[in-house]
Amino acid sequence: MNRLLFAPALLLGLAAPAFAQDALRVGDVSAARGTKVTGAIHVPDGVDRGLDIPVSVVHGKEAGKTLALIAGTHGYEYTSILALQRLLPELDPLKMKGSVILVHMANPETFFARRIYVSSDGKNLNRVYPGRKDGTISERIAEAITREVIDQATNVIDMHSGDGNESLRPYSYWMTGNDPMVDAQSKELNLAYGLDHIVIDHDRPKDVKDSRYTAMTGVLRGKPSITAESGGLGRTDEASIEIHHKGALSVINHLGIMAAPSVKVTNPVWIDRSEVLTSPATGVWEPAIDQKDAVVAGSLVGRVKDSAGKILGEVRAPFAGVMLYVVGTPPITKGEPVGFVGRVRADER
Ligand SMILES: [Zn+2]
Questions:
Q1: How far does residue 226's CA lie from ligand 1's centre (Å)?
Q2: pTM for the full predicted model
Q3: CATH number of 23-254: 3.30.1050.10, 3.40.50.720, 3.40.630.10, 3.30.450.20?
């Protein structure tokens, strides 16, 4: 309580290191060095209703890297949200050199409404970064997270799973930008997170003003960042939650913020070509395979039927590889994703 009163005295005292006083402020949270505080980033009402994004700040006793862990960008992807609940009590700011910002639920509106893909404005939060203050709710959330979280971090991990309709194998994205140094460190972050399939993606936006994705917003601002996926179908299974929990701890260790068990992979399966497969028709989706299945070119991924069961169309794999996710529930609209296929890099085939 008296920290503010003591601060000027400490500034005068030559023995006190200069960083002892600097608080880390995120939204309404102000965490002094060596403390852990939970609060919210307030997104005010605008053209539509605002909301509060729940955040915790664990500000290490000593200065170091600042890792942003962003959960619940898609509110039906529960594993990331539950993983951060486990992680928070394990972070000891008195043992930390550096800090961790935990965004517990980036899009609470989609969580409570049980929405997949999009917010009430019809926009996907992970496509509207860096957002805008005068935009609709997805854009205002993106603007607030960019300003309060990403701009204050040195590294960003955007944590996802398959959405409520997607059966997914754990994998992460190594997304490259304009700076080879950042790209090299993003690669190391992927390895540190420990997922054994890593999608190499050189085709994301390269314009910082139109970064679209959460993790690309970090990459294009010079902050090594990744997107990590574990879980799906609205499930809260232990294994999928633990993958995110252990991965986050491993990155905290990798960045030198706090000692924690490493789950680093040295020889992951690199996916050097990937393609989202889409539905040829609106109807009832019937998958023929699941995630983790290998495919050859022409393998049947699934069929779309009308509501009486007549086949309207089918989806086949365009090249040999592995499935990363497959839509696992029946409703499907023409043009929507039904699966994601990845080709294993040649030297590993
Ligand atoms: Zn997602």
A1: 13
A2: 0.93
A3: 3.40.630.10
